[in-house]
Amino acid sequence: MVKITLKLVHALILFLFFVLIANNVNAYQDCKVDADCPQNSWTRTYRCIENKCRYTRVMEYNE
Question: pTM of the prediction?
Answer without folding.
Answer: 0.47
